[in-house]
Here is the input.
Amino acid sequence: MIQNNMFSIQGVQPLQMQSTAQSKPSTPAETIESFGTYLQNALGSVAAQETQAHEMSNQFLVGKANVDQVMIASEQALLSLQLTTQVRNKVVEAYQEIMRTQL
Here is the structure.
């Protein structure tokens, strides 16, 4: 029997909702700052994946990496970049929709 170990769910834990009653309410400035930090970390992660994919391709050229490792790193970087682009497009679309709204 063929067993697929690629999508193992043994380590998956259910999501836990964070209670907002326990945390102190944040000001709009703190919320904007934390959102900005989140975006900065997300974009840094995408850039790091791009750098890793480039480094893996360089290692492949000198014979230090396998082609499957290079392809996986490249696809991860490509998917991250595509996701970032789609999120940006949705944010711009939402902004344009808000700007078209008449008061």
